[in-house]
Specification:
Length: 395
């Protein structure tokens, strides 16, 4: 039995975006949509005194409905879309030999680091937006159509384990047809505050489902919450796309682990895919040096800014004691993997909501609708002042 987390062990919180979201929730003219990152459902319960890593997707969906959101969608769905787009992009680059290695682009801390420290390598990043921004773009297009709502009336909230996601959602490029894709980002701690302020008895809430279609996800989507998860999800789909055979084992231990840099070779039929997983930006310098010198042996590199991936993000319940912090990260990680293993569908390309999205709306991965909504560009921040690099306007 893991220890429960009690209030005095937490760092002090600021109100952050809580007042802004409360104002929007009280505005009946707005159609309020929310998405939650994979790592929230394994940590939110800690804020309510439940054991570390308690898995509560159903209680989280129920609490969001009690808060009066009109649609409870999920970043995990966006993670499945990311695999469709990024996996196709990777296979194309491996076949052509162009712009290799390819880096993941879903962690805004890593993207900003690359824009600052290695602008000459930006075309090595996948052009995919993060799962959060993909869901944001789909909420105001595909989702708006499904729900019969004017996209301009949609207020899109993202609950993230991350303190960099607010910066990401404010990037100029993150706009769809003149509208912000995500209007506001709140952290796990801020969601807990909203639930507490509304007097919701989180611990005793009966489970409720997410809304369809943008709330339906596979096990592959849920493992984006841990380091190595994007890689594992991509290999599950990549294997089947390349070989046209069922992957023999879904648990890819060779990309799981604790080390800040892990490397492996995945056999996809005749293709030897050389991969690296980086957790923590201090481990990325050597990798960047190799790419700059043209000596990198890898095809695909996942980079996450936080030591265990998003389960250890800066917006998660914050433990003051390092020993407890480590326990919490381990418990949240195990919970993410347990959640994956309990899913009926564990590969992104087999998620029926994803199949329908491509059939009815996107057409095909990397098609022109996908390019318009789900892909982006990056730009050098090398010569910017610290404020400009963070997108803060200077007088
Ligand atoms: Fe944010 Fe950390 Fe996750 Fe990167 S790894 S997206 S910085 S929480």
């Amino acid at each position: 039995q893991l220890p429960s987390v009690r209030e005095p062990l937490f760092a002090a919180y600021s109100a952050g975006q809580v007042p802004e979201v409360k104002r929007a929730l009280a505005d009946s003219a707005l159609y309020k949509v929310v998405q939650c990152a994979p790592a929230i459902r394994v940590s939110l319960a800690e804020e309510f005194g439940l054991p570390m890593g308690t898995l509560t997707p159903g209680k989280m969906a129920a609490a969001l409905r009690h808060l009066k959101f009109d649609r409870i969608y999920d970043t995990n769905f966006g993670a499945d879309v990311t695999i469709m787009e990024e996996g196709t992009e990777l296979i194309g680059r491996v076949m052509s030999g162009e712009r290799l290695p390819m880096f993941t682009s879903c962690c805004p801390a890593w993207v900003k680091h690359a824009e600052t420290a290695a602008p000459e390598l930006l075309d090595h990043l996948s052009s995919c937006k993060s799962p959060m921004q993909m869901v944001g773009a789909l909420v105001k297009t595909y989702g708006a159509k499904q729900n019969g709502v004017d996209p301009a009336k949609i207020y899109s909230v993202a609950v993230m384990p991350c303190t960099c996601k607010e910066f990401e959602c404010s990037r100029e490029e993150m706009e769809v047809d003149g509208l912000r894709e995500v209007d506001v980002v709140i952290t796990t701690r801020e969601l807990a505050q909203l639930i507490k302020d509304a007097g919701i008895d989180f611990v005793n809430l009966p489970d409720e489902p997410f809304d369809s279609p943008l709330g339906i996800y596979s096990g592959a989507g849920s493992i984006f919450g841990v380091t190595g998860g994007v890689m594992e999800a991509a290999i599950r789909t990549g294997y089947e796309l390349v070989t046209h055979e069922t992957i023999p084992n879904l648990q890819l231990d060779f990309v799981r682990g604790e080390e800040g840099l892990r490397t492996a070779t995945a056999q996809l039929g005749d293709l030897e895919l050389r991969v690296a997983v980086v957790a923590g930006l201090k481990y990325v310098s050597e990798i960047l040096k190799q790419v700059k010198e043209g000596t990198s042996p890898y095809h695909f590199i996942e980079v996450m800014g936080c030591p265990e991936g998003c389960v250890s993000g800066g917006g998660q319940p914050k433990l003051l004691l390092e020993t407890l912090r480590k326990k919490a990260y381990q418990a949240r990680k195990s919970s993410v993997y347990r959640h994956d293993s309990h899913q009926q569908v564990r590969k992104s390309h087999e998620n029926p909501a994803i199949i329908k999205l491509y059939k009815d709306f996107l057409g095909e991965p990397l098609g022109h609708v996908s390019h318009h909504l789900l892909h982006t560009t990056f730009h050098s921040r090398e010569k910017m002042s610290p404020n400009q690099a963070l997108g803060v306007k200077e007088d």
